[in-house]
Amino acid sequence: MLVMVEKSSAELEAIYRRFELQILDMTCRDGKAFFIFLAVVTVIPQKSVQWDPDAGIVTSWTKYPRVTVNVSSSSGTSDPRSVVDDNDNTMWVSGSCLPSGFVGDPELNLFHGLCDNNNLCSVSNSPDIYKATDGNPSYTVATINPGQDSSEAKLVISLPQPEVLMFLTVWGIYNHGTTKMSLFDSNNIRRDTRLLVSADSYKQISLTNISYAVAKIEFNSSQQFQIKEVAALGSKGCIAKLTLDLGDTRMIQTIRSRHWAGHNTASALKLKISEFGNSWISVDLDPNAVNAVVTRLSSLTRGRFIAFEYHLYPKSYNKVYLWEVDAWDENSIWGAKIPPKPQQYTMRSLLGVNGIWGWGNNKYSSSLQQGEGPTLYNAVASHARNYHNMDWDVLDPDNDPEYSEMGEGRGTNAKSWLNWDTEYRAWKTANLKVDVSVQFSNFQQSRWDNLNASAFNYGKEFAKHFGSAAGNNLVDAVEVGNEPWSYDAAFYKDLLRSMSAGIRSVDSQIKVLPGAFQAHEKRSSRNYIGTRIDAPIANNVSVINFHTYSYVSSYTGARMGIHPEHPESSFNSLTNMMRWRDVNLPSHPVWVTEWGWDAPSGTEACTFPECVTETAQAIYGLRGLLILSRNAVDRVTWFFYANTQCDHLYCRSGLTGSPTTGFIKRPVFHAFKVLLDFLGDYYFQYALNESQESYIYLFGEKVHNQKPFDEEVKVRGAKYMILWKPEALEDGGSTPLFYVFPHGTNPVHAVRFTGTNVPYVIEPLHYQSDIQGKLTLNITSYPVLIELSHSPVAPVVGF
Questions:
Q1: CB atoms within 10 A of CB 717
Q2: Is the N end or the C end of the chain the one with fewer CB atoms within 10 Å?
Q3: How are beta strands 544-547 and 745-753 bridged, if at all?
């Protein structure tokens, strides 16, 4: 609400602190100062809800308190716990293996500790021979004297078994005479000899790439000599290893890692998992993957230890990096799937489309012919969402948009030719509900001189003109930002609070949405809902806004388009948002205002890894719509209405081709149209199965009684059954289904969707009708829709 007061500065400060008022403006009347405040009134619900900004997060096993991180002794001084600090921009840095970092690592140095064992290390006479292989070339030294019965000082160190050596290195002091160093192979044949003299003292003397298997190394001299260290790398070379101890055995199937090793540093990287640390499951990773990679194990695995083993190129001072590690069970970062719920909206009322002013025709939609613009897309859409650029309304965010002037035909503050009424009225005439996404990110934060007052005024003027309470009722919903991720969290929260308050000051009916955010990953703070929406702000919000696309990361870290049921698909992120909603705003609906797939079409290429085939776009679109309907969302809005004349991601996600193609209908358009022809007036009822083998859904009349029913009752209340195999189209697998229908229920007609411009074919029904009819059908990734008929047997309760 607005409050105008005449007060002294001290009194104003007291009011501000008590009621947390925000000064919107100051004016003078009769020489007195008046301040206009925005009072954000908190409405306390009857039942208190404890706000949890992180309610959507599924905690990684690596983020629990008992987790410890251990590194190989050749590692550097960086903090290993950087890999579990929930920050992709901090990292553990290994030490350099070469030229000498490996010496103290008993897992790498083949000679480490061998002179602790008299069986492997023989010496003529030495009081401290163990120091020759103690891994410390800097501060310890073994002195080798001639034997009491011999004039020769001699040291022989044998390997437990002959080894091919990639790198052999020796430090010593040879001030009393020449020392002969010899290598012997497995046949006890001397293969290499080097004479070490006084000039070699204190130096690191090294041999590389020894091609034969070395059995032992021998030093002998007629005089005393000293060995500071003998060390060698075997054929496996330099390895840097980091191991996480989860503290408890966990069930693991998904590991997310940002493991880029650095440029040209590692030849291989192995991810290893073990329950007890003695036997390991190993998976090869790409050490050159720059982006984070999600690795899904072939099966759910018991594990306590997670290790990353880098195989380094044999270069001096070479180091590798590990940035962040997370792990989850079979449900991944998304958590357990939300149980399906009967839908409250028909399939036709669920589906909408994202559009723009003029629908790509560069003129008002009111000027278009029937079958163009809104009257083309209303065949598959019940609502349309417009990207309403604020800089079309105002030259500066602090300006008045002048909608009343616009309504009189004199344009907005920014565009003298613009009349949104003309455009939105054409959409409404085409029976499309209008959702306006106000995009203001073209204005830098610094352009807002008076954020709270300007945002409040814009929201008020928008609702006063377009809303139902005081305006022309052309807009049903308004979003405070599309993806306003470039604005700081605190700045956006103030903007959302003020703009939504302005809207609500004149219209309590128009639906108000925040920008689209995600609820599954705090490290992506720019689009994380937990930092953008809080309890006081939520009072003016009526719908949760969400975008979801279906991507997974590849072996190289590249993002790829994938089918919506893939367990690692980002399409599953809706689960986290629904969980967040259920905790914080349980009465608020969720709208998925962007979703879809990119695909090539004719001459309009799609070359990015996120692209799928045009057939896959259509089939995944169908399957995605069905899955969204079972998740009890209230709207789903496909992105985009048409392909666009650009060359980046999301340019090929259209229901139709671009304007240059004449907006030719693509297979995904035909698929949605046919699905709505069958199911448009019906509701999702139940999911009979959701497994790796098959998804089976039921559609029919609205379910009013949501108490549990057995499968027979559910099937007898359904008009349609739709089923498919939840896999990628290119996998091409099939699963035979033998389904026994309850007595009185019969499949009468079936179609299989094709994902082509001929959107379906008749599916033959192999059906044995007896007391209970058995249907035989091959389930593939192409959905089959079966129409059911029911003869009277007994009343069906709940439908």
A1: 21
A2: N
A3: unpaired
